[in-house]
User: Which sequence fits this backbone?
């Protein structure tokens, strides 16, 4: 039972961490510097969890490069801007903060969800690599293009933001690769522990990101927090809808990669980015943390929809 809380029932711990971050008594402002290290833990343990054949697919799966590039352009450019445009049309002040999360690359955990729903795992790895390579450029540039008085983005900050994102992604994943080379047998022996370790770091990150930034949103009412959650769910629904559309014209296992990658964003990176470049700005920090609710709900609903499609397909087979 306890082990399942760090596996298929991880959403329970994530929701509890969210509630604790909102209302657990105490002062946690001094915990902010820990955020990049906890995010590093997520990426490091997720990197250890990658199987060798999945990593080789990045270099050998050339037939999927075109699809991965197509997915990446939609995932990092068109869909985030579409979600932002819809939210902006409603006049919500949370639009730029929600855009920040939508601009993030696909999370490494999306590989596990792709595998769970019998999707194309090598293509999922390629999508993560492509979105990870492009996001250090796309995130600062698009934030600057839609910048408002809430974000205070300046073009002179683009380079530092790009380097910050790149370091947050490259350092822990590089350490994971080095660890696998040095202690391959040990990594393989404890393979079942790396996934739960990454999820534990993710739960810790949810709590710290909320609790350590209370001074930024202490004046927000419960209804305002609920509105943030609603806008995050609304944006995730837009991203998820496009994930359903590709099933119309694309092979199911490839479309599953896009659907899962759309919904499972690297909100941990968004949290670290928001706390570093927008300290004390609730309009940017809260959406990064609250997107966790939308992501979990979206992936669960998408998984049920795929199960329904499989059941219907089996019924129609002679």
Assistant:
């Amino acid at each position: 039972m306890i082990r399942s809380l760090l596996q298929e029932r991880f959403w329970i711990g994530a929701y509890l961490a969210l509630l604790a971050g909102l209302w657990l008594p105490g002062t946690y402002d001094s915990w902010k510097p820990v955020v990049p290290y906890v995010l590093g833990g997520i990426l490091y343990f997720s990197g250890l969890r990658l199987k060798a054949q999945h990593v080789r697919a990045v270099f050998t799966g050339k037939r999927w490069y075109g699809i991965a590039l197509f997915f990446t352009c939609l995932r990092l450019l068109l869909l985030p801007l579409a979600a932002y445009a819809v939210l902006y049309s409603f006049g919500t002040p949370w639009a730029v903060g929600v855009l920040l999360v939508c601009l993030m690359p696909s999370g490494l955990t999306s590989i596990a969800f792709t595998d769970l729903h019998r999707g194309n795992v090598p293509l999922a790895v390629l999508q993560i690599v492509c979105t990870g390579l492009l996001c250090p450029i796309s995130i600062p540039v698009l934030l600057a293009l839609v910048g408002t008085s809430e974000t205070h983005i300046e073009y002179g900050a683009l380079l530092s933001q790009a380097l910050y994102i790149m370091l947050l992604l490259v350092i822990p994943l590089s350490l994971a690769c080095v660890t696998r080379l040095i202690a391959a047998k040990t990594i393989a022996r404890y393979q079942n522990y790396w996934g739960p370790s990454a999820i534990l770091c993710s739960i810790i990150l949810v709590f710290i990101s909320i609790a350590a930034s209370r001074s930024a949103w202490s004046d927000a009412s419960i209804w305002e927090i609920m509105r943030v959650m609603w806008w995050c769910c609304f944006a995730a629904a837009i991203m998820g809808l496009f994930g359903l559309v590709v099933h119309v014209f694309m092979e199911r296992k490839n479309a599953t990669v896009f659907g899962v990658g759309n919904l499972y964003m690297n909100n941990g990176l968004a949290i670290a980015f928001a706390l570093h470049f927008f300290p004390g700005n609730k309009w940017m920090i809260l959406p990064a943390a609250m997107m966790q609710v939308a992501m979990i709900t979206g992936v669960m609903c998408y998984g049920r929809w795929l199960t329904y499609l499989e059941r219907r397909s089996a019924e129609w087979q002679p």
Q: What stands out?
A: Residues 307 and 313 are 10 Å apart (CA to CA). The chain has a mean pLDDT of 82. Residues 29-310 form a domain with the Na+/H+ antiporter like fold fold (CATH 1.20.1530.20). DSSP finds 15 helices and no strands in the chain.
